[in-house]
Every structure is written in structure tokens, then in C-alpha cells.
Design a protein that fits this description.
Blueprint: H1 5-8, H2 14-22, E1 25-29, H3 35-45, E2 49-53, H4 78-89, E3 94-98, H5 107-112, E4 116-119, H6 124-137, E5 140-147, E6 150-157, H7 163-166, H8 177-180, H9 184-203, E7 212-217, E8 222-227, E9 239-240, E10 251-254, E11 270-271, H10 274-280, E12 290-294, H11 298-307, E13 315-319, H12 325-328
Helix pairs in contact: 3-4, 3-9, 10-11
């Protein structure tokens, strides 16, 4: 009996479906709470090539939900630790670990090399960066988010609308697992849903999960879903760049305080808050590009949205990123 016998007997999979999975290359961005269950099921299902991109290291506070890791792996790169565990699960597949975060500088190339992208980073900036690249390249994009006892998973791009078509604006406030908390089974269920969506896309199981979003409420044990196949793409897109893509003549605004960033992203950057931008209405010089930077991208997005109300020049955002102190503690 073969390794994949229990899934190949499914009429939705069969030999042709299993061959499609074996011939596929998936990029999984993030090997945390969502990525761990998704990776385990993708490797088990026999995805031929899996690339794991995550620049973070394993912390003790990860272990209650990030099930691929053990206490003796604290301090190791998540991508490498996950790759070793998955290789032990399935030696027939090829696994590549990238110990760097996905950024606007490398996302385009990483997306181009794969057949499908799984966004498990649970980061506003990463999700929009990856969605933009997947939409431009026609690659399926499966993204998810989990917080507290709720979350969602959805299939975008690859012929379906992009993430921006469904979520054209960021929320008013940013929260993460370190600040708001999360239960392990919640991310386990949603990460597994991501893996199922990916397998369905690659094996061509109908109905196609692209253009479909599923929400989970594990406090009330309720689930809801909707399709968005005809959602229109927004006319204006606020795009992200990397800090090393700042040009010398850019109008740069540093929205992080000195407590977050003692040194601004560039020496010439103006130190402002979102409230300052809204009250002062700063205007870049003719021919300049506005570059707004903060930690997660949320404040940069908010400031850029205000800037667009009175200025029609080019705007780029930077999410500098930072692992919350709680998640660093071992």
C-alpha cells in the first residue's frame, strides 16, 4: 500500500490529482501558528516542492500553538527547524528553507518560482505584497488570519479577485497574537483550512476555493463563508517597498517614535505621527515620491490615505517590521 493510498482513492484526487500535487511547488510564507499545521498537511499530502520563508526564530512562547517545534529547538530559525521536521515526515519531497522575511525586494522572484503561495505570515504588509505579486503573475494566493478565537481563510488571485478587492482598506487598529492572544486549536484549524484550499486548487477540486472566503468563530463554534468572484479591483493601490528602495529625492516620513526607532529609516526623514500628518498636511515637492514608514504598515497606510485626499503624487509604504518582545522571549 502506498503512502498516499488513502487520498488517491478519493474520486476528487485519483492518480491524476496525486501526480499534480507531486509536480507542484508551493511557497509558504511564515512557519508560525498558521504555517505549522499547513506545512504538516502539505508535506503529508506529497507536495513535490515546498519552500518555507521565515526570518524568525523559535521562542518558548510559540510552542503552545506552533506544533512543528520542540523545546530543544528554541533559538533556531523556524524555517530550518520546520524543514528538518517535515523531511522526517516525508523524505520523498524537496523542502527549501529561507531564513529571511519576504519583502517587496524578494517577493516577486519567490512568487515567480512557485505554482501557489500560502500566506501564513499574519502580517498586513506581507499579505498585500504577496497578493499584488500573485495577482500580477496569475498565481493562486491562499491567505489567512487568526486572532483570539476567530479567523478566516480565503483564496485569491490566480484568476480570482485580489486581496485588495475584498479588503481595500486596512483596519483602524493592529493587533497580533502577542498583544491579543490566540488559542492553538484556532490557528490549527485555520492553517489546516489553508492547506485544504491549496490542495483543492492544485488537484482541481470543484468548487474552486479561489474567490471564496471562510470565517471561523471558535468561541461560538460558528462558521460562515461567501464568494467574491465578481469583486472589482480598486482603482488606487498603495504599494509597499523595501527600505533599500528609498531614493535620494524621496519625501520620507518616519511615523515610528524614537522609542520604537531611535534612528529613522533615513537621516532626512521627517518625524511625524499620523495625527501630525492629518493636522499639518505636509506636501512633497513637485516630482517627489512620498514614502511613509512605520512598523507594521498600518500607520503608513493611514497617513497615505489622508495624503491622497489633497495630493495626487506617487506614494509608497514601508513596513519595517519588528518581532514583538513577548515573542522573542524564550
Amino acid at each position: 500500500m502506498t503512502r498516499y493510498a488513502r487520498q488517491t482513492i478519493l474520486p476528487e484526487i485519483g492518480r491524476a490529482g496525486q501526480d499534480a500535487l507531486s509536480d507542484s511547488h508551493i511557497l509558504v510564507v511564515g512557519a508560525g501558528g498558521l504555517g505549522c499545521p499547513a506545512l504538516q498537511y502539505l508535506a503529508g499530502a506529497g507536495i513535490g516542492r515546498i519552500t518555507i520563508a521565515d526570518g524568525d526564530t523559535v521562542a518558548m512562547s510559540n510552542l503552545h500553538r506552533q506544533i512543528l517545534f520542540r523545546e530543544d529547538q528554541v533559538g533556531q530559525f523556524k524555517a530550518e527547524a520546520a524543514a528538518r521536521t517535515l523531511s522526517g515526515l516525508n523524505s520523498e519531497i524537496e523542502i527549501t528553507a529561507i531564513t529571511q522575511a519576504v519583502t517587496p525586494a524578494n517577493a516577486d522572484t519567490l512568487v515567480a518560482e512557485t505554482d501557489l503561495v500560502l500566506d501564513c505570515a499574519d502580517s498586513f504588509a506581507a499579505s498585500y505584497i504577496l497578493s499584488d505579486d500573485c495577482f500580477a503573475q496569475g498565481k493562486p494566493f491562499i491567505t489567512a488570519s487568526a486572532l483570539g478565537l476567530t479567523g478566516y481563510a480565503g483564496g485569491f488571485c490566480g484568476g480570482a479577485p485580489s486581496l485588495r478587492a475584498v479588503f481595500p482598506d486596512l483596519p483602524d487598529r493592529a493587533a497580533n497574537c502577542a498583544t491579543a492572544g490566540v488559542l492553538g486549536p484556532v490557528v490549527g484549524l485555520i492553517g489546516a483550512a489553508q492547506a485544504q484550499m491549496a490542495l483543492a486548487v492544485l488537484a482541481k477540486i470543484e468548487p474552486n476555493p479561489l474567490g471564496h472566503l471562510v470565517s471561523f468563530d471558535l468561541k461560538t463554534f460558528r462558521q460562515s463563508s461567501f464568494r467574491f468572484d465578481t469583486a472589482p479591483e480598486p482603482d488606487m493601490r498603495l504599494g509597499f517597498i523595501s527600505a533599500n528602495q528609498i531614493r535620494t529625492n524621496d519625501f520620507v516620513v518616519e511615523l515610528r517614535g524614537t522609542d520604537e526607532a531611535p534612528n529613522p529609516v533615513t537621516r532626512a526623514a521627517a518625524r511625524l505621527t499620523v495625527a501630525d500628518v492629518k493636522s499639518q498636511n505636509p506636501v512633497p515637492a513637485p516630482g517627489q515620491r512620498a514614502v511613509l514608514t512605520c512598523r507594521s504598515g498600518l500607520r503608513a497606510w493611514q497617513a497615505a490615505t489622508h495624503l491622497q485626499t489633497y495630493w495626487d503624487g506617487p506614494i509608497s509604504l514601508i513596513a519595517m517590521g519588528d518581532t514583538p518582545e513577548l515573542e522573542r522571549q524564550s
